[in-house]
Amino acid sequence: MDQVSERAGISRPTLSSLEKGNPAVSLGIVLQVLLVLGLEKDFCFWPTMMY
Predict the structure, then answer these.
(1) Which residues have a Cβ under 8 Å from the Cβ of 4 and sit 6 or more positions away?
(2) How does the average pLDDT of the chain come out, rounded?
């Protein structure tokens, strides 16, 4: 986790907040972590269902 947070340029506590699903974590940070993990294509820009 130290390596992921370092590569994403965020603190370890911020990464921990993201893992716990804290809604205060910005979408920019979510995307940074996804990029580091090679999962950026999993980021959904458009909802698949709208009510």
Answers:
(1) 15, 33, 36, 37
(2) 87
